[in-house]
Amino acid sequence: MNIGNILSRHARFRSDHTALICGDQRLTYSELNRSVNRIANALHAAGIRKGDQVAMLLPNCRELWELYWAIAKLGAVSVPLSPLLRGNGLSNQLNNADTALLVTTESVAVHLDPVFDTLRLRHGDVWLIDAEGHHCYDSFHSHKQRASDGEPPEADIRPDDLYNIIYSSGTTGEPKGIMHTYRIRAAYMTLFSSYYRMTPKCVVLHSGSIIFNGSFLTTMPVMFLGGTFVLHENFEAGNVVRAIKEEGVTHTILVPSQIVAILEHPDFNGEHIASLEMILSVGAPLPQKHKEEIDRRIPGVFYELYGLTEGFVTILDKTDFHKKPGSVGCPPQFFDMRILDDAGRDLPPGEVGEIVGRGPILMAGYYKDPIRTRDTIRDGWLYSGDLGYMDRDGYLFLVDRKKDMVISGGVNIYPKDIEDIVIGHPEVREVAVFGVPDESWGESLVAAVVLKPSSDVESDELKSWVNDRVEARFHKLRAVHMMEDFPRNVAGKTLKREIKRQYLEREQTGRRCG
């Protein structure tokens, strides 16, 4: 089950079909396969063998995309990491992964220098994709240029061999490496291509970072089918809308903040987006008003996916959008879901509990962390840490993360409930609600808000507007924290913990100054 050999097959049977569009580079399957072979042979010449971990500390670029496939051809293990990692967060993840070789850029290598002596690279190699050398680091392209474009040595890959390790803990905290096997990634290819109604003619656009697991939801299916993959170096709403029209994009995947941005673009209408067959929303719940706006402009293309990198998903199909407003769908074929109380008992429809699921993409575990693996996967079921409820038809409605729940005056409050009210204000673009310490209530609520351009609504005015609409006193906001934009990771997901940290620091500074 060598996923890398999928390219070899397309190079034979779909050789002239466009495989990759990245910036001004356009590669057919034949060209892409030869380029990937050069990288695979260069890695092999450097000593990389089946089971070796190759880390990629890269932004979106052609080289990152090709590395995924080259590493797979060797049966090695890809370890995509955020190029925003610094200091201990960087060295901890590289060391935890037992990295054999690291591929990065010259700009990131500057931040690698201070921790280089703490790294335990098994081959001791760092390759830079954009420089001929930096201190003791080698040039990626010089290795590639010396290598053959013929097929690399065949690796004896079995379905349960490790394909990748994806870290989910961010820049702080203990590294948590999620393991996916070749069998799991093959399931991503076959199952999701079916769920999204993809064909070999599809054109898939990805403008968010491809180091995160969400990217595999569409990148694996399009390559499995032999379609065309359009990769943007970063997200920019105008570039997305332009690419949809110029390349005839059929499928794209976006996080909510990106969906908000393209909805505000004047060309996201009519013939500019007529080719679209799917907009897949992932990463966080998308407010209902934005779903309805998508459906108004281009009916019958909206899908939403709730999922965990650890291996469970529900999908709101485009045919269910009107039937189940507010839902994130139901488990696809071969997946099962339960809603459990704190004692592990199944709850009836309509009652809120922890979302627990299983299916064919369930992770192999956390790398070198059997204790945390046992806590998360029990009797084959994945315990998500998310709260939600099922309706009588088996559709899932998200409530919130367990860890985000606020307890005010002894009452459980789900920030998402308040966010749904705040986003209803016509001047609000994005909102994140969180709890902060309160001497009287234990915790009270703060809403961080990004307003629409040119809006002049004041924080106190918005606070009063919200508090007039909440159901109970303990739902009222203590403050509205205005921000120009939210901090995000490279996938575009909002970092609520960082917003809360910034707010508390500002409050503490204000008290000292006062």
Describe this structure in words.
By secondary structure, the protein is α/β, with parallel strands linked by helices. Among the domains are: 47-182, Rossmann fold (3-Layer(aba) Sandwich); 336-402, Luciferase, domain 3 (Roll), CATH 2.30.38.10; 405-513, 2-Layer Sandwich (GMP Synthetase, Chain A, domain 3). It is built from 15 helices and 26 strands.
Please describe the topology of this protein.
Elements: H1 5-13, E1 18-22, E2 25-28, H2 29-45, E3 53-57, H3 62-73, E4 77-81, H4 87-96, E5 99-104, H5 106-112, E6 125-128, E7 138-139, H6 140-145, E8 162-167, E9 177-181, H7 182-195, E10 203-206, H8 216-225, E11 228-231, H9 237-247, E12 251-254, H10 256-263, E13 278-281, H11 288-297, E14 302-308, E15 312-316, E16 336-340, E17 353-358, E18 365-366, H12 370-376, E19 377-378, E20 381-390, E21 396-401, E22 406-408, E23 411-413, H13 415-422, E24 428-438, E25 442-451, H14 459-467, E26 477-482, H15 496-513
Parallel strand pairs: 1-11, 3-4, 3-5, 5-6, 6-7, 10-11, 10-12, 12-13, 13-14, 25-26
Antiparallel strand pairs: 1-2, 8-9, 9-18, 14-15, 16-17, 17-20, 19-20, 20-21, 22-23, 24-25
Helix pairs in contact: 1-2, 2-3, 7-8
Shape: globular
Largest beta-sheet characterization = 8 strands, mixed
Q: How many distinct helices?
A: 15
The average pLDDT is 91
Q: What strand line-up does the widest sheet have?
A: 2-1-11-10-12-13-14-15
User: Remind me, CATH topology of the domain at 47-182?
Assistant: Rossmann fold
Beta-strand content estimate: 25-35%
Radius of gyration: 23 Å
Oligomer: single chain
Helix content: 25-40%
Q: Provide the CATH architecture of the domain at 47-182.
A: 3-Layer(aba) Sandwich
